Here is the input.
Amino acid sequence: MLNKTEVLIVGAGPTGLTTAIELARRNINVRIIERRTQPSIRSKALVVHARTLELMDILGIANEMVRRGYTSPGIDFSSNAEKPLRASMYGLDTRFPFILILPQAETEAILERRLNDLGIEVERGRTLTSFTKTDEGICGIVECTEGDTFEINARYLVGADGAKSVVRKTLDLSFEGSSYSWTALLGDVQLQGHHAEGGTEQHSNNRGLAFIVPFDDGSHRIVTIDRNYQSTRHTRKLKLEDLQESISAILEKPVELSDPKWLTRWGASLRLAPQYRVGRVFLGGDAVHIHSPAGGQGLNTGVQDAFNLGWKLALAIEGTAPEAILNTYNAERHAIGKKVLRTSDLLLKSLLLHQPLLRQLRTILFQLLIPLPPIQRNLALNLSGLGISYQTGKGDLAGKRIPDMEFMTAKHELVRLYQLLSFPGYTLLLFIDPNQARQERDKIDRLIGYADNRLKPQIILNNGLPALHNFQANTLVDYRGDLETKLGAKTGRVILIRPDGYVASDLSTLDPEAFAEQLPSWKTRKIASSKALVA
Here is the structure.
């Protein structure tokens, strides 16, 4: 008998784990395989941005991530950390107005525990070697570390298997772009002679670029891109004395490194696959986009790919969303991948300028422009991911990320909007005043009538007492005026929010007919549970 599942995920990094969680919490039969026999303890990625933390908040693990890491106010664009030119995150409208410094290994461990809580284990030591299309999906050949192989049938396949993706190669998708010419030196070491704290430090001079990140055990992550070390292949073993000489030259003062936990050379590429979906096969994360490390976008873009795909795939499988919704994954995320490549490449090139005159001009321009409020806001929104928007439907808010807000229940308890978004379906906000609650009761009841196991209405009063209104839906009061001050919303608003916190549609009146026209693009009336296949 063949192994069967609804979705097979290849790769248990942040992208694969997030996709699996989104499927599992909607009771979709999912299996996730990983060629590594043990979780990785090494982490090139360290930065978790605000938008990723908001998505982790929906999954219930953001607080744990923040506790295990530490925060930085923003990304530094200066050539001297003693005079930072930061794109500050402090003014962002989010619970997470900062950059979280958390090694990827820690992020993966937290995600895997969340997946385990949902009853799914990562199947380690298993490698997808090939797959073929079938009438019902795909049939994959999986090789175990012990040497035996087995077949697995799945309706859908998700390739989250990194830059050398077997899934992408089997699909014969190109990986357009090129490799960078530079090689970086990386070490997790003890550092004497320089004091670093408060997130990432950045330094540059005519030798190159250096990043320094302190860890709470007293060690530091040091990364240099040094012109004097570009003749050695990145596969050659890195010596501690080479890293010490490099960082001393870029800091322009002698420092001493000791007790290395990890030393390596590494290179990077700038590549993007032409599409993220081929039939029943999807790709995400490094399998479809790799780019410059500048701005810390890699892990974050992959996790956001996964969240975008996971809920859509789950609802399409169970029949509560139209199958066409799966087309929006490529439409939405490929454009974001392309933008991230362009932005991260431009940022790194600006930091690696060699000619003294150009470096001086860059510094002057950064000093003039970066402190300007519009530039600050634009940089912060783009780097944090909070500025991402999509084309989704009608209304002023359609396609935009909805910020977190705080409401009060009839029992005078406080609840945040992102806590409500943990519901594994669509959230419908009906923003009304007490007069509308009485005078337009029929329209409100008709809108509430769309509720089911994948659509949950929330009545939001702009003032008054929720206990005085007997709706067949949760009734809250916007006691701080968040809907008005943050969104400019007037009462009578009908806002359909997707499971990933983006607005699917936005109506300015309590119009059940108009809502009925918008809803089929996102949701069907069919209520069905996923058919469990024999594992």
Remarks:
- Residues 528-535 have pLDDT under 50 and may be disordered.
- The longest strand covers residues 149-159.
- The chain is about 30% helix and 25% strand.
- The domain at 184-267 is CATH 3.30.70.2450 (Alpha-Beta Plaits).
